[in-house]
UniProtKB/TrEMBL annotation, chain A:
Domain Large ribosomal subunit protein eL14 positions: 45-117
SUPFAM superfamilies recorded: Translation proteins SH3-like domain
InterPro entries xref list: Rib_uL2_dom2, Ribosomal_eL14, Ribosomal_eL14_dom, Translation_prot_SH3-like_sf
Gene3D superfamilies, A to Z: 2.30.30.30, 6.10.250.2270
One Gene Ontology cellular component: cytosolic large ribosomal subunit
Span of the signal peptide: none
Protein name: Large ribosomal subunit protein eL14 domain-containing protein
Automatic annotation (TrEMBL), chain B:
Entry-linked InterPro entries: Ribosomal_uL6-like, Ribosomal_uL6-like_a/b-dom_sf, Ribosomal_uL6_a/b-dom, Ribosomal_uL6_CS2
Keyword Protein biosynthesis on entry: no
GO biological process, one term: cytoplasmic translation
Species the sequence originates in: Psophocarpus tetragonolobus
Domain of life: Eukaryota
Large ribosomal subunit protein uL6 alpha-beta domain boundaries: 12-89, 101-180
A Pfam family matched in the record: Ribosomal_L6
Entry-linked PROSITE patterns: RIBOSOMAL_L6_2
Keywords for the protein's UniProt record, in alphabetical order: Ribonucleoprotein, Ribosomal protein
GO molecular function: rRNA binding; structural constituent of ribosome
Family membership noted in the UniProt record: Belongs to the universal ribosomal protein uL6 family.
Keyword check for Zinc: no
The protein's name in its UniProt record: Large ribosomal subunit protein uL6 alpha-beta domain-containing protein
Amino acid sequence: MPFKRYVEIGRVAQINYGKEYGRLVVIVDVIDQNRALVDAPDMVRSQVNFKRLSLTDIKIDIKRVPKKKDLIQAMDAADVKNRWEKSSWGRKLIVQKRRASLNDFDRFKIMLAKIKRADVVRQELAKLKKSAS
Amino acid sequence: MKTILSSETMNIPDGVSIKVHAKVIEVEGPRGKLVRDFKHLNLDFQLITDENGKRKLKIDAWFGSRKTSAAIRTALSHVENLITGVTKGYRYKMRFVYAHFPINASITNNNRSIEIRNFLGEKKVRKVDMLNGVSVVRSDKVKDELVLDGNDIELVSRSCALINQKCHVKNKDIRKFLDGIYVSEKGTMLEE
């Protein structure tokens, strides 16, 4: 029940509102009660409101406001990209992106695959029901 | 001004088992079980064990105003009262005070209610039912004394208040007519 993900220097967060929606950033400093200074390897260091951030489990080891070079080094050392893509949150995002980028033919193929899978499941269920009764 | 985090901890003695779930605290000990609901407070309750292996109750207030930070310590005091209620119990003693008309009290309903007659010579009979889990007994060794026992301090002290308030003097100078039943001692059942 207590909080496990804290706002701290080095906490990796995802922006969940605004122009930078979906981007992974690192909190490099806390400005005041409501705002943080965030940085990412491919963006200019900027301020963001805490309400626009969703904290992740990942934390990297940096000093307050590191240089871009040191930030990239620390992110590689903690292997943020791979940990993110392997985490269940990251995997769900990848699936969502794939689903959003489907064309009609892909959706048709998925429909057929779902029907086939449901078929197999129903046959197994019928077998189990028969053996149970 | 909002304080980012204010927290306090308290030790839990051995012999009591505490369960904390969704701001409802359940304390169980040798004298029974007490439950208290803190859902009206905006605090985080958690049970932790510190380095020495002792169990503690920790209360956090995140971004609290002055009032919510103050509520931390009162919640701890309430839990402390639950713990002593469940280990030692509460014993409140009340004395009859009268100038001329002796207060006649009889305990009915197997120690659960009290009838008061002849208060200030009045014909009216005052009946007070004790709250849940509180028992009242006329002290045998001391003259004109009532002893109220119970586990929950809120219920015991409220029963005392009910008895006290039933015996208020009306339409008279209360500086002169000092009759009544007053709480004389607040203590626990286990005397050390």
